[in-house]
């Protein structure tokens, strides 16, 4: 090992994807320890990692060429000790100048002050806060304004987000290609339309609500009845669309996407209440590039305890005839008779 040229060692190290294997490799020799640290591109921090500033400084200064960092405290309990906090983001940003992808999951002690340090990461392109209860719209707006290369943004179960000024800014001045919003009660379908011109550049969009969509009177906190606005929006670049657990109306909310998309390759609809079959047929006929279709639709109530599938043979024939590139089809129906 000691006689191998460094490029070959680096190639070997980059082919090892399991963190425990990399850690074991580092114990073989000082040279491997140094080469592995120089070429490691991804790191996961969570329960069991010493969150003190001194320990994190030592950790991140060793792996100074990181591209991707995930801070994940899923399953954390007080017995695990303290979590990293906002000061930890400052340490990360100072010692990892190449950082381009950051995920924050179940980080209860990272707030807007922590996000305010992200502009030091000049190459940051992807940010994924998930269950970050201390992060507010103010912190997200700072990121939107300061991280000018941001192209991927996921916002999942962030309960303190209560306005979308940041989304309007990203729509006007940003370059988002991927936007995911899930289980954020403070963001409505109508709020998302304020993304405005940003829809033109978006290639992947996902929106999901944790609502009581299966009840006879489903509830969707993102639905705003009678909201007045125009639909003069373009989404010609959208290739991947995923909507789940939302209520739609012909002139309200995100339903407009199904009538505007022409270049979809992936379509995922799960319990989107209010869709009509003729809309699905029209969508299939327009989107000839579809490769993957997954539909999990709420059955239609006929009478008494009888239900029928939301789609008939007509829509399936349109899908088969109009989408020659189709590779994956997943159709899920419940409470419907086999015939």
TrEMBL record:
GO BP terms: SCF-dependent proteasomal ubiquitin-dependent protein catabolic process
GO cellular component, one term: SCF ubiquitin ligase complex
Domain F-box: start-end pairs: 1-45
Name of the protein: F-box domain-containing protein
Native organism taxonomy: Eukaryota, Viridiplantae, Streptophyta, Embryophyta, Tracheophyta
SUPFAM superfamilies: RNI-like
Native source species: Triticum aestivum (Wheat)
Coiled-coil region(s): none
């Amino acid at each position: 090992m000691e006689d191998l040229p460094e490029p070959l060692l680096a190639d070997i190290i980059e082919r090892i994807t399991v963190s425990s294997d990399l850690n074991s490799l580092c114990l073989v020799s000082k040279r491997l320890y140094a080469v592995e640290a120089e070429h490691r591109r991804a790191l996961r921090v969570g329960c069991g990692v010493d969150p003190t500033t001194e320990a994190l400084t030592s950790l991140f200064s060793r792996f100074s060429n990181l591209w991707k960092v995930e801070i994940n405290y899923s399953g954390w309990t007080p017995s695990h000790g303290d979590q990293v906090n906002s000061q930890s983001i400052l340490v990360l940003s100072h010692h990892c100048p190449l950082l381009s992808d950051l995920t924050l999951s179940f980080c209860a002690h990272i707030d807007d002050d922590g996000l305010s340090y992200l502009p030091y990461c000049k190459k940051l392109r992807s940010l994924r806060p998930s269950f970050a209860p201390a992060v507010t719209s103010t912190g997200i707006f700072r990121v939107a304004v300061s991280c000018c290369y941001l192209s991927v943004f996921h916002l999942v179960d962030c309960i303190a987000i209560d306005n979308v000024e940041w989304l309007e800014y990203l729509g006007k001045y940003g370059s988002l290609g991927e936007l995911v919003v899930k289980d954020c009660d403070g963001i409505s379908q109508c709020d998302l339309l304020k993304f405005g011109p940003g829809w033109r550049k978006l290639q992947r969009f996902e929106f999901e609500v944790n609502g009581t969509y299966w009840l006879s009177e489903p509830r969707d906190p993102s639905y705003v009845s009678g909201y007045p606005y125009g639909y003069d929006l373009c989404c010609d670049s959208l290739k991947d669309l995923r909507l789940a657990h939302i209520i739609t109306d012909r002139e309200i909310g995100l339903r407009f996407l199904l009538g505007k998309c022409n270049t979809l390759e992936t379509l995922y609809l799960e319990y989107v209440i209010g869709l009509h079959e003729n809309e699905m047929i029209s969508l299939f006929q327009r989107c000839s590039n579809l490769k993957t279709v997954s539909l999990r639709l709420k059955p239609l109530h006929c009478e008494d305890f009888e239900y029928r599938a939301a789609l008939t043979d007509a829509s399936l024939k349109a899908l088969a005839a109009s989408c020659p590139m189709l590779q994956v089809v997943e159709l899920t129906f419940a409470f419907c008779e086999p015939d």
